[in-house]
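Please decode residue identities from the backbone states below.
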């Protein structure tokens, strides 16, 4: 693989099929990516532009240019972005709490996406913001951004594989009955409430694995790894089993402590295969200051 191209060489007779089928079935590229690249003339065989009905031959060399001119209606804003990993395809940032990840009607500016657009323009990179993972405004931690269409497609596809892991740290009320286990409860969004979710048999399958890391008199520090990625999944699951997250105004206890002003939830670890090389990338971030202060307070009680 080169920096701006995907390169495939046909080595087997069974791959002598239409190039469209080869790219989709063998290389696992999305139909959308293939159509767009073909329409824009970014697919070559042996240095020549071809049609998608072209029948491949042994020793053919396919090149797909992944660079394309793109724009996004997001206003660039200069801001401090904590970049913890970056290459030509992927970027991982450590988002602070209180920041919305993408502009909305109520938050048109000051979002992570505004800052990323500015960051890309300053570096002279023709990238748009492609979020592979998202976090609630008041959840801190690691977020993956794809820097091109291929990387976004590959990472989104691979999120369903065991090599892709997203783990969180939460400080919860009370003590869980077991130090390690799995919460497998369906999550549903009632029609009358577009924000809050509930555990309900009508909902989608939702699986959260947990492990207690530290135990205090009035709470515990818990590691949570998602097998599925439903909206508010960790918050809903923990609240439902009687151990809501400290500071969670939506699913938690109203008479909460004064040591944290948001849900004590941090996306602290990512593990994923690189979209081009397949190499496993593992990244961790430390407990943010406000959660560390809360933990110290609970340790002292």
């Amino acid at each position: 693989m080169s920096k701006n191209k995907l390169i495939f060489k046909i080595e087997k007779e069974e791959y002598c099929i239409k190039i469209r089928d080869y790219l989709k079935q063998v290389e696992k590229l999305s139909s959308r990516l293939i159509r767009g690249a073909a329409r824009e003339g970014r697919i070559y065989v042996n240095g020549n532009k071809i049609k998608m009905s072209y029948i491949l031959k042994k020793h053919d060399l396919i090149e797909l240019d992944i660079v394309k001119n793109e724009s996004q209606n997001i206003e660039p804003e200069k801001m401090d972005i904590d970049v913890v990993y970056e290459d030509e395809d992927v970027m991982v940032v450590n988002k602070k709490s209180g920041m919305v990840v993408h502009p909305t009607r109520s938050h048109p500016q000051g979002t992570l996406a505004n800052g990323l657009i500015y960051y890309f323009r300053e570096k002279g990179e023709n990238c748009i913001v492609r979020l592979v993972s998202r976090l609630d405004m008041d959840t801190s931690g690691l977020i993956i951004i794809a820097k091109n269409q291929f990387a976004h497609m590959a990472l989104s596809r691979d999120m369903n594989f065991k090599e892709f892991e997203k783990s969180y740290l939460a400080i919860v009320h009370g003590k869980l009955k077991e130090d390690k286990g799995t919460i497998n409860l369906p999550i549903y969004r009632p029609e009358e409430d577009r924000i809050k979710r509930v555990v309900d048999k009508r909902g989608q399958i939702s699986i959260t694995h947990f492990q207690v890391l530290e135990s205090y008199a009035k709470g515990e520090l818990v590691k949570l790894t998602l097998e599925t990625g439903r909206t508010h999944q960790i918050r809903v699951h923990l609240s439902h089993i009687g151990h809501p997250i400290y500071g969670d105004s939506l699913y938690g206890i109203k008479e909460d402590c004064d040591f944290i002003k948001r849900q004590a939830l941090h996306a602290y670890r990512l593990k994923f295969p690189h979209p081009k090389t397949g190499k496993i990338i593992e990244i961790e971030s430390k407990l943010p200051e406000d959660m560390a202060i809360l933990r110290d307070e609970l340790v002292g009680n």
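Observation: The first strand starts at residue 5 and ends at 9.
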